[in-house]
Amino acid sequence: MIPDKTQDLPAAALEALSRGQKIEAIKIVREARGLGLKESKDAVDQYLKTRPDLEQKFAELQAQAVGSFMRWALFLAVGIGAAFFFLR
After folding, report:
1. Are 28 and 15 in contact (CB under 8 A)?
2. Distance between CA 26 and CA 57 in Å, rounded?
3. 23-40 residue pLDDT tens
4. Once rounded to an integer, what is the mean pLDDT over residues 42-51?
5. Separation between Cα atoms, residue 80 and residue 40, nearest integer Å
């Protein structure tokens, strides 16, 4: 039987995932296993499928990032509009 390599991610990759750093975990897996980018991402994604708690955490982090971006975009638009209004 072939061992499932998604279950034995390096400890550093597991630590990165616990901090919400998926890209860092992919880099660690890539270096530790000598895999390509796609294979490393697939391994991390496969591991996350076995951990719904972490998968939920990443969904929440992504939603927060989108919300933060939208707030900054709105702030920037209002600032540009105000500058245009007052400086014309």
Report:
1. no
2. 17
3. 999 999 999 999 999 999
4. 92
5. 42
